[in-house]
Amino acid sequence: MPSGTTLRFASLVLLAVATTLQIFGQYASVWPVATSLDNARCQVRSGLYLTSTLEVDPDESKWDGYRACMATFLGGRAVWLAGGLVLLFAVACLIYLLRPAWFRHRRGLSPVPEELVAPLAELVTEAGLAKAPTFLLDPTKPRAGGVAFGTHRRKYVALNAGMVTLCRTEPETFRAIVLHELAHVRNDVTITYATLAIWRAFAVAVLAPYVLTLFNPFLLSLTPWRLPELPGDWFAFSVLWRVIVLVLLVFAARVAVLRAREKHADALVVRWTGDPDPYRLLPATGWLRRWLGHHPAPASRQAVMRDPKSLLRPGFWETLGSALAVQIAWWHMVTGLRDLTWYRAGNESFLVMRIVWAVPVAALIGLVAWRGAAFGARRGTFALPGLAIGLGLVLADRLDTQNLLPLTPLSVVGSIALAGTATLVTIWAGHCATLARTRWHGWSLGLSIAVVAYTLLGWFTEVRLAGALWRNNMTPVMDLLHGYAQTLPDEIALKAVAIPFLMNYNRVPTVVALALLWLVPLVLRREFPRGAVPAGVAGGVVAVAAVVLFGSTGTPLVATAWQILAVVAVQLVVVLVARLDRVGALLTTWLIGLPATAAIWLTHLDDAEVDSILAARPHQVLPVLGTLAALLVGGHGRVGGYTGSRPVWAAGIAGLGVAVAAWWPHAAASAESLQPPVPAGAAVDTDEALAIWLYGGGQDRIMTVVQANDKVFAGVRAEDPAAIAAGCEALGPVLREEFPAPPDAKIAATWTEALRALQSGTRSCLVVFRDEGFDDGSMAKEFLRGLDQLKVAQTALVEAQERAIS
Questions:
Q1: Contact 516, 448 (CB under 8 A)
Q2: Which of 648, 649, 425, 645 shows the shortest CA–CA distance to 525?
Q3: What is the pLDDT of residue 484?
Q4: CA distance 289 to 621
Q5: Measured between alpha carbons, how far is 85 from 107 in angstroms, rounded to an integer?
Q6: 382-to-303, 369, 652 alpha-carbon distances in Å
Q7: Contact 429, 314 (CB under 8 A)
Q8: Per-residue exposure over 769-798, b if at least 16 CB sit within 10 Å of its own CB, e if not
Q9: What is the pLDDT of residues 337-375, one digit of tens each?
């Protein structure tokens, strides 16, 4: 069984990598200075304003222009990100390789006395080590004890000077202490010192420079040793607190590795000695060492030695830390790939990264299930780690430094649903693990967990955008459905079916995942729930009758909604009356849904088409609602028995359901649509867009015009015709320079009019002062009008910027 030390070490590495990417990503965004506002500049140049409305602009030409613009800034960012990781692991590798030599030199270690050689050799054999470590004596430590250290190739055990006396006076205690260190040699010396190396490299190469830049932001400027005027203005608090939490998580993972190794070593000592209290007395620790020290509390160690099997139980906090590590690392990886313009719509990046995410999450769920099954299925064995996985997925979204969106009620609802789903998926995986008996079963279950995690948990990205998705995607649909319904009950029925229909856009993977929930346990058991088929057949007959009964209720769209809800009601009643366990209940709802889907098709069929989009794909909704019904009312009261059966029957039923989800009759062109017409452009927050325009070069554009105009009036104040003519000649090209107008129609009109008036005044100026023509008064009039319009535009832009910031 894999130990918790390895899991915690993997969490440490992921957290260290994620935090390094985040910190070096901040460096990349501010140095060199020329790239500090590249994102805003590219938005302005392409006309693609990415504001908090989060609407996707359908104009692909804008996206192409934005990506092409961003591509010019990516070299420096890629160097920063790659350089940060190279620096972290290079320093860690150096510390890992040099630390044993430094430890031996600092402690003045020497070979052990001759009288210890034979006892130590016997203990090495007892510990089952193929290669004995090098035993050394630490003359500076009079108390009994020892420490295992070294690298993967060469390992050492340093015994304190007090161990020589202990070997003579208390040989059993000597034996237990040495076996404890040999357990470290056997299990975790490599991981332990790799952990310490990564933590120290992280502190030295990543954390320390970052703290320095917080106190002196000009270290990242072209004048690095200039004293800062406002130290707090360089970073946003919303980013800083997330980085602090990430650092604390890295430190917590480091402590967790070092403490877990002690418990696993204690368990091996108990196994080798047969004594549940081999050390007789563990020294008490102070409160500071209990929180920050390498060793767990004595009471915790003694509990493990009394019951070593308790180490198999997956813990809540270790699982939460691992889930946070996986999710935070994924978010930071996506951020880097998005900056490189690869992670975007229009290619396979979303699919690839969702698979990349699903593999470690499935591995974590599988590890929880494996260890929990070995420990024994008791109350909370799978539920608490499952909840920890769900909380990890949710909390990591808040800890992502790129996520500055506020929490919305819909995001909270989505987070609760995600955490609950993760808990149920882990409980299911744990139940299946208790049924697995062979290696083939284990591999099949692991693949099934990956598919279920990919589908049923992979929608975590939508939780962050829940408010915007509902506002931009669902609200227009709800408004459209309001017009279709004639009565309030019809509207409620339509919305109740349309919401899961539209949210389940991965219909085939969803059906596959929901089928696996009952198929995998049945295949592993090689049994079939005895009451599920009769209940499913009877419920299918009733469901078909209900479909026929509701077939003429209002318009085709409304009638289909009522038919689907009637089938779900039949599923609820049948499962409740049959009193099946949850696996049997899931199969029963599936058996009811298949004939109901066929009946809905037939009642709406017209030649080769159906008259409603809901009637074309009812199996996009029925498996989802049927699963919820089975989980809600299944498993209560009497639980039906099982009978021996080959897996082919269960697999055939599941395959039929997947086929029904993959193929459906086409909806007629005249069928009522659930989607309103696609808007021509995306709605943006105008104030935010104007602020982006200013940051992305608009402010520089205004200042350039103002400064060029000031040169003209400097000549006027000096009453120097040559200076006036030179100023007008320089002002003309500045006014004609192409730059996108502000993204607001009214301000854009004022801005354009200001530039046009100044250009007219410039032409008159050149006629008078360069060509010595006649001054008819138009020059002053046009200049004053242009300046007035420029002032109005500036005032409106500043007000919009202030509203956006507030």
A1: yes
A2: 645
A3: 82
A4: 55
A5: 32
A6: 21, 7, 30
A7: no
A8: beeeeeeeeebeebbebbbebbebbbebbe
A9: 877 777 877 788 889 999 999 999 999 999 999 999 998
Q: How far apart are CA 383 and CA 429, in angstroms?
A: 11
Q: Where are the alpha helices (DSSP H) in 59-202?
A: 60-71, 74-107, 114-126, 162-169, 171-187, 189-201
| DSSP element (H, E) containing 135 | strand 134-138
- Dump strand ranges (E) for 596-751: 605-606, 609-612, 642-644, 666-672
**From CA 431, how far away is CA 525, in angstroms rounded?**
11
Low-confidence ranges of the chain (pLDDT < 50): 222-235
Quote the tokens at residue 13.
Answer: 């590495």
CA distance 728 to 724: 6
Q: Supply the DSSP string of 568-597, one letter for each residue.
A: HHHHHHHHHHHT--HHHHHHHHHHHHHHHH
User: What's the number of CA atoms in the CB half-sphere (13 Å) around residue 397?
Assistant: 22
Amino acid at 763: R
CA distance 564 to 604: 13
Dist CA 319 CA 361 (whole Å): 11
Q: Residue 35: its pLDDT value, please?
A: 53
How distant is the alpha carbon of residue 763 from its chain centre? Answer: 58
Query: Do 706 and 761 meet the contact criterion of CB atoms below 8 Å apart?
Result: no
CB 201 within 8 A of CB 194: no
528 three-state secondary structure: strand
- Residue 488, CB half-sphere, CA atoms under 13 Å: how many? 0
Assess contact for 553 and 489: CB atoms under 8 A.
no
State the pLDDT at residue 237: 64
Output the furthest CA–CA distance in the chain (Å, rounded).
117
The CB-based long-range contact list for 436-443 (8 Å cut-off, 24+ gap) reads: 436/373, 436/524, 437/524, 441/524, 442/370
